[in-house]
Specification:
Elements (H helix, E strand, L loop, with lengths): L1 E4 L8 H13 L3 E4 L12 H13 L7 E3 L13 E4 L7 E5 L7 H12 L5 E7 L9 H11 L7 E7 L8 E7 L10 E2 L5 E11 L3 H15 L6 E5 L7 E10 L3 E7 L6 H16 L7 H6 L1 H8 L6 E4 L4 H13 L4 E6 L2 E6 L2
Helix pairs in contact: 1-2, 1-3, 1-9, 2-3, 5-6
Length: 352
C-alpha cells in the first residue's frame, strides 16, 4: 500500500489524478490523506470525485476496483482521504459526466494512460467544462496530442461537440484512445525549429461582442501581430456565458498553447495583457516545452522509460506542479527523474 500525503508540494488535485492513473497501470493500491489540502476548498470537488469514479469504471467496476475513504465509506464530495485498490484495466466505451462546470479534461487525464496501455481502442464521451482556468483546456490537449506520443502515432484524438465554460458547464467531448501497437515511444523535444504560424482565437458566447473586439485590439498592440493572426470565434449563445483568449504558436518541432480567461469584474484589456505576458515569456526563451506541457509529459516519458525507451525534453520552467508530479510518479514506477538546469530552463529526463 503506497501512502501519499495530498498536502505535499503543490497540494492540488494532480496528485490524486496521477496516483489513480498509475495505480491502475502498476496494480499498486494507495491511500491518500489531506486531499487538495492547499486549495481554498480542500477535499474532493465534484470533478475530482468524477475522476475517482472514472478510475473505478476503467478498472473493471466496483466489483474489481474499490475507492473508499479511510473510514471505509464510499468516496464523496468534500472527502479528504481515499483508499484505492485497483483492478485490471478494461478497454471499452465509457461515458463520464462531471455534473458541473468542473473540467472533464481532468477526467481524461485520469484514465488516458491506463487506456493507452490497454489491449484495444477505447472511446470516451465526456461532459462538463471544456475550457476552465484551473485545468488544461480541450484546445490545449487537442493541439498537443501528437507530442505525448513521442515519435509514434497519436495516442488519442478529440472531437469537440459543445463548449463548456464556467459557471454553466455543459460541454461535450468525444475522445478515441489508440493504444500504440509497438508500445510507447520515447519523447525527445529539444528544439522548437522555425516558427510556422502564430495566431490567437477569442472564444466567446453569451457576452457583449465588444469584449472580443477590445481583447483582440489590445493583443494586437501588445504583440504586434497582424489582423490575419487575430481570430474572432463567436459561439452559439447557449454555449455561454464564457470567454477565453488563446494563443497558438506552431513551430517545426512543437506547438504551444497559452490561454487567458475572462471573468466578472475583469476588463477585456486585462485578459489580453495576461495572455501577452505568457506569450512574451515563452518567446523570450529558447526551451521548446512550456511550463504547462512540462508536467503533462512526465507520465508518458516515465512509462516509455520503463520499457527501455529513454527520452528527454527541454522545458522553459520547472513548476512546483511538475516537481510534485515527478515525486508521485516515482512512488509507482521504477524510475527516477533527472532534472538539470539548461540555459534558463530545465532538462527533464530519467536518471540512468
Amino acid at each position: 500500500m503506497i501512502e501519499l500525503d495530498g498536502s505535499q508540494g503543490e497540494g492540488g488535485g494532480q496528485i490524486l489524478r496521477t496516483a489513480l492513473a498509475l495505480s491502475l497501470i502498476s496494480g499498486k493500491p494507495f491511500c491518500m490523506e489531506n486531499i487538495r489540502a492547499k486549495r481554498p476548498k480542500p477535499g474532493l470537488m465534484r470533478q475530482h470525485l468524477a475522476c475517482v469514479q472514472a478510475a473505478v469504471a476503467v478498472g473493471g467496476g466496483a466489483g474489481h476496483t474499490q475507492a473508499v475513504s479511510s473510514g471505509g465509506h464510499a468516496a464523496q464530495v468534500g472527502e479528504t482521504s481515499l483508499v484505492f485498490t485497483p483492478g485490471k484495466v478494461c478497454a471499452g466505451d465509457y461515458e463520464f459526466a462531471v455534473g458541473s462546470a468542473g473540467s472533464c479534461m481532468l477526467v481524461l487525464q485520469t484514465v488516458l494512460w491506463p487506456l493507452v496501455l490497454a489491449d484495444r481502442t477505447s472511446t470516451l464521451k465526456l461532459s462538463g467544462g471544456t475550457h476552465n482556468p484551473m485545468a488544461p483546456s480541450l484546445s490545449f490537449l487537442k493541439l498537443l496530442a501528437p507530442y505525448f506520443a513521442g515519435s509514434g502515432p497519436a495516442l488519442f484524438d478529440m472531437e469537440l461537440r459543445r463548449h463548456g465554460f464556467y459557471p454553466a458547464g455543459g460541454g461535450e467531448v468525444a475522445v478515441r484512445v489508440h493504444p500504440p501497437v509497438k508500445g510507447l515511444a520515447a519523447i525527445n523535444i529539444m528544439q522548437r525549429g522555425e516558427l510556422l504560424e502564430a495566431y490567437v482565437e477569442c472564444l466567446h458566447a453569451g457576452i457583449a461582442r465588444g469584449v472580443a473586439e477590445r481583447e483582440l485590439a489590445t493583443l494586437k498592440g501588445g504583440l504586434g501581430w497582424h489582423d490575419e493572426q487575430l481570430r474572432d470565434r463567436a459561439l452559439r449563445s447557449n454555449e455561454g456565458p464564457g470567454n477565453v483568449l488563446q494563443a497558438v504558436l506552431q513551430y517545426e518541432h512543437i506547438t504551444e498553447v497559452f490561454s487567458s480567461y475572462g471573468d466578472k469584474g475583469m476588463s477585456s484589456e486585462r485578459v489580453a495583457h495576461e495572455l501577452v505576458k505568457q506569450v512574451q515569456a515563452y518567446q523570450g526563451q529558447q526551451a521548446p516545452v512550456g511550463p504547462y506541457l512540462a508536467d503533462q509529459l512526465m507520465i508518458p516519458l516515465a512509462l516509455a522509460g520503463t520499457r527501455g525507451q529513454r527520452g528527454r525534453y527541454w522545458a522553459a520552467e520547472l513548476t512546483e506542479h511538475a516537481r510534485t508530479n515527478a515525486a508521485v510518479i516515482e512512488k509507482f514506477l521504477p524510475v527516477k527523474f533527472a532534472l538539470e538546469p539548461l540555459s534558463g530552463g530545465v532538462l527533464i529526463a530519467l536518471a540512468p
